[in-house]
Amino acid sequence: MRRTVAVAVAVLTLAGAGCSAGSGPTEAEKQYAAAKPEKPRTGSDFERTCADGLGFPGLTAYEKKAGRVHPMAVVKKTDDSWYVDSPSGSDFPATWMVDTIAGTDRTELVVCVEQTGAKPTSRICDMEDRESGGKYKMTMYDVDYRIRVLDAQSGKSVFEKKGTRSEKECPVVTFRRATEDKSKYYPSIDSKTIRPIIKPYVAP
């Protein structure tokens, strides 16, 4: 059976918007802001926690307690950049996740997920391009990963796990960026891989 591949191309649309400059904060407001322990404004602020181990002193320190959920933010690395992920309710229980727009004050843990290497396997798939109908061979790769659980307040490591993700069966459909080599398939480090690793710390 031939498999098909779809190309997912991200399109960025920029909309211009006018804005006017305000007078800015007063000296007293600056001093007050400087005296307050720093907190994240949005989930994207946790990118620095994974990249540089920088936490947010204004958050609650992580103390593992059985029967209690310790809310987390998930940050993943693509190429050389970190980005905050927005998993669906089917990926993780809703109680595990913080609102990365307006609920970051609850964050106790930051989960950092990254691919650290990849190696080709002997599994070769017969594929067919959905757009052109052209047939080609696709090599399956095994992916090495690292998952870290960090204290959101201090940025210090709570737990770290290294492993390898592989798939035995050829995918029916693949999605890739237009710049990616369609002859190579790298399995994603998905929620099924992440969940059992972080559960003892998020929901002990």
UniProtKB/TrEMBL annotation:
Keywords: Signal. The keyword Signal applies. Residues 19-44 are annotated as: Disordered. Residues 1-21 form the signal peptide. PROSITE patterns: PROKAR_LIPOPROTEIN. This is Lipoprotein. It comes from Couchioplanes caeruleus subsp. caeruleus.
